[in-house]
Design brief:
The chain has helices at about 40, 60-65; strands at about 15, 30-35, 50. With about 70 residues, the protein is of the alpha/beta class. The model has no long low-confidence stretch (mean pLDDT about 80).
């Protein structure tokens, strides 16, 4: 799935963020933000959300996403 993004943002800065507690300290400086798994719940805004978890749609962090 992520291959669809290849070369789409050449020259831009990109942050790929997981769901560690330190994500609450993150300040957006990058052009593009990609949230992975539970990061979607913790981030106020991301440009993309990715998950390789086949059961993601059943997880609490997924069910609580806007």
């Amino acid at each position: 799935m992520i291959n669809k993004l290849r070369d789409m943002y050449l020259g831009k800065s990109i942050a790929v963020l997981g769901s560690a507690p330190s994500i609450k300290l993150f300040q957006r400086l990058e052009d593009i933000i990609i949230g992975v798994n539970g990061a979607g719940k913790l981030l106020q805004k991301s440009d993309y959300f990715l998950s390789a978890d086949q059961a993601a749609h059943k997880r609490s962090w997924f069910l609580e996403l806007d």
